[in-house]
Amino acid sequence: MKIDGYKYVRVDENGHFFYQVFLGRDSEGKQHFKKGRKDQKGLNFTSAKAAEAEAMRIKVEYMNRRTEDLRRISYGKFVRQDFLPKYKADVEDSTYASHKRMIMLSVDRFDTKILDEISVRDCEEYRTWLMSDSGFSRDYANVCYVAFRQSLGYAEHLGLITTNVAMKTKAIPKGKAVAKYWTKAEFEKVLGQISTKGFYEHCIYVMLLFYYRTGVRVSEGFALTWNDIDLINQKARIFHTMYYKNKDDYQIKPYTKTKAGKRIITLDDELVQILKDWRQIQLAHGVKKFVLSYDDRPMIKSTLNNVIHKYAKLAGVPSINGRGLRHSHASYLIAELGADVLTVSKRLGHSSPAVTLRYYAHMFDRNDELIAEKMVGSMDLTPAKQSQVKFNGNQVVPFTKVV
């Protein structure tokens, strides 16, 4: 029977006091309790207060021992049973799938290392390996080290370590590699290798042209249905993104990569006419839903990359990837059309012009030349036939034309 005012104390039918303490669950979920009728000296309890005090001592002792045991957990075990499940719940499936490989790199290095024995020196050595002997690009090494820091940060949050020692080391700076893209001339060569007489190849033509002329992200383009295209007002609504494992297992997510990514862009006259013709061709082949599709299922990224590589080789131009088409659009806007940074930022769906400049600042150098060219003949440069102002001293010395 319970006694009011005492959380852990009971009294049996003979009036003797005893305690019962819940000590948690094991790895299989089974509950564990501890009962006792005697204090630390082996004497029976003579009051509920004494039984409660012993129960509290047992509880604290157990918790301290459990905390110490947890702190002896290996880094690999912690990542697998604690960090990865938490990380998977926090991010998109596609993000988890790609970043898990990066997280497991740190597990390969610190698998059996006791979590609270990982030192600043260990972190420095791992950082150095990522930047040198790993062979990774600077950007990839950066993301790997960020993931490692996050894992130790979560261990600190859980109280398994007192300090995230990785934060005492410097972050890995991102690389400054210039993204690969096609110039207008290079893209024209690629288009010149694609025939629109066949249905599948016609789809390839429309797909590459659409990405080049709109700059949408690959997953945004694959998610586009004809409900997102307004051919009358010449607008494309970029409100969704595609997540897929394969052509039969996919989802259209009701959002884009960032909040700013949700946007409506204007389509040019030429692209609109090509889309109108493509729509009719699709309908004749029973394709009704997806814009960039030949079988009414979304295209997959590997197909896009394979197509780009194949036609780049035929055209004799450098090969890029799907993301490179987005960079190509930015280049087209800036270098060929002289677009300003704000226009480019909004069209690409960047969160701010600062993001645009981070990736494409080098392209705006060409705008300086375009502006200089446009200045020629843009104003009347004819001087007055004679001076309308009276000057004194040396200011009245007449100009002598050098022959």
Automatic annotation (TrEMBL):
* Residues annotated as domain Tyr recombinase: 177-375
Q: What are the protein's UniProt keywords? A: DNA recombination, DNA-binding
User: What is the protein's name according to its record?
Assistant: Site-specific integrase
UniProt lists the family membership as follows: Belongs to the 'phage' integrase family.
Q: Which InterPro entries does the protein's record reference?
A: DNA_brk_join_enz (IPR011010), Integrase-like_cat_sf (IPR013762), Integrase_catalytic (IPR002104), Integrase_recombinase_N (IPR010998), Tyrosine_recombinase_XerCD (IPR050090)
Question: Origin organism of this chain?
Answer: Limosilactobacillus avistercoris
Q: Which domain of life is it from?
A: Bacteria
Q: Tell me which CDD domains the record gives.
A: INT_ICEBs1_C_like
